[in-house]
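Worked example 2:
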Amino acid sequence: MMRLMRMTTTWLLILILPLATAQAQDAGLEEEAEIRRYTVEMIVFKYAEEVSTGTEIFPGDTPPRSDSLLEEASLPSETVLREVVPVRIRDIELDSLTSSEFTMGDIMDRLRRLEAYDPVMHFGWTQATYPEEETATIELGSLARVPSGFDGTLKLYLSRFLHLVVDLQLNAPDSSNGNPQRNDPVSTFGDARTLNEFGTIGTQGPVRYRINEDRIFRSGELRYFDHPKFGVLAKVTRVEETAEELLEPEETELLGYPAE
């Protein structure tokens, strides 16, 4: 009888110990996969007309193709369709900042005082961070009131480094409805327009100025996204960090002016 009890106890230990070890390992993995929260604060501004003038040409958007043309360019019948594995999109728990939580008020005031800049947006938010493929883009309009002509999305994600993706567009004056510019000879002389790849006369889309960049950030760092027509100042800070862990102001610059 005693021998039977010892054998039973031995088998129980054999069954329980691996389970306990696996649970401990899972707990360790959960601790390693700590969810980090960051605060993003941004200022969007336009350049004054006399500053942003230049010779750079910004082509209009390519007009969408018609359904009939898409059918002609359909995939071959022998194309093998691969199974697409759905990716889990995480809830980033986005929380917009109030104006009392802004830390870049002095920069906003400085931009207003300089005639070369026209600041049009100041906003911010906090969120949890995940890998890029698990993070949805944030519509600009969900964060603040968007001035006329602006549109775009933002994305903050964490891989090996912390990344902020800025994809913003600004419609050129008199082009939001797709009308051609007066000095555009191709659009002025209609019969002289060239045929597109489908043998038809293409429609000129509106001209848009665009910033589309993916930048690596360090916590507390202020970075500048530039375009000849408008720009973005962005600062990303980890929520749990103390003031001593952040970058000193001397380590950043604002549009060529040393930080004060």
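Residues 12 and 29 are 26 Å apart (CA to CA). Confidence is low (pLDDT under 50) at residues 12-17, 27-32, 184-192.
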